[in-house]
Amino acid sequence: MTCDDARVLMHGHLDGELDLVDDLEVQRHIEECPRCVSEYAALRAMRTRLKDDAFRFEAPAALKEKIRRAIPASTTARANGYQSRRGAWVPRAVRFAVPMAIGAMLALIIAPRTIAPALNQQLASEVVASHVRSLMATHLMDVASTDQHTVKPWFNGKLDFSPPVNDFAKDGFPLVGGRLDYIEGRPVAALVYQHGKHVINVFMWPTAGTATGAERIETEHGYNVEQLTVAGMNCWMVSDLNQLELDNFANLIRTKG
């Protein structure tokens, strides 16, 4: 099963609507795919949030009355029986319309606040996975150099953008090289820095926006992750450095990158 197949079936799996074979295949794929398990966790989190009693509201009487007035009265009713049926239908319509209207409004309010952090966490899982692979597969660098004027030109022709490359050796974070990587479905630049015995991977690819403060992301598998936008680049930093040291490095990227 591919990731695209799993995404189509995730909702059915979450709601218990799949047959046994599809359900087991989706479950197996989610357990084996870091990207899909993060997406599934985001769906579960949103589903749980929307079921929270804190987001259930009783419609005010004024709103109910407004909806009743908005339902057009029939101009062709002539029989008392019809009027009786219409009188019974209106409360039922209100009973269904009001929760649906409130649910739609809540979804518009809650979804951006719930989905955006979940997507950030999903992307954090992806960059952490790439960081770990680079350390395990002994493929940390395609170009090994402490000279930014060697590393930056190496990316020419290999990417459709030119990443900013800086050496922060005098600040205790020397550049040691770079490589190509693949994040969020596209090739990206991965710059490699060192602080003592700690490796820092910096993933960069174009985005809209100007320089911003670094945003801390929830720790993933013992690695700290920070994200910021600088010089038109989406920049993700991953390392087993402690949070304070990674904050200092992120500040160097933001102010000198």
Quick structural gist:
The chain has 7 helices and 7 strands.
Low-confidence stretches: 75-79, 85-90, 109-117
| Structural classification | alpha+beta
Main sheet record: 7 strands, antiparallel
Order of helices and strands: HHHHHEHEEEEEEH
Label the overall shape: elongated
CATH architecture of the largest domain, by name, is 2-Layer Sandwich
Oligomeric state of the chains in view: single chain
Strand order of the largest sheet: 1-2-3-4-7-6-5
Level-1 CATH class name of the largest domain: Alpha Beta
Q: Helix amount, in percent?
A: 40-55%
User: According to CATH, what is the topology of the largest domain?
Assistant: Phosphorylase Kinase, domain 1
Total number of domains: 2
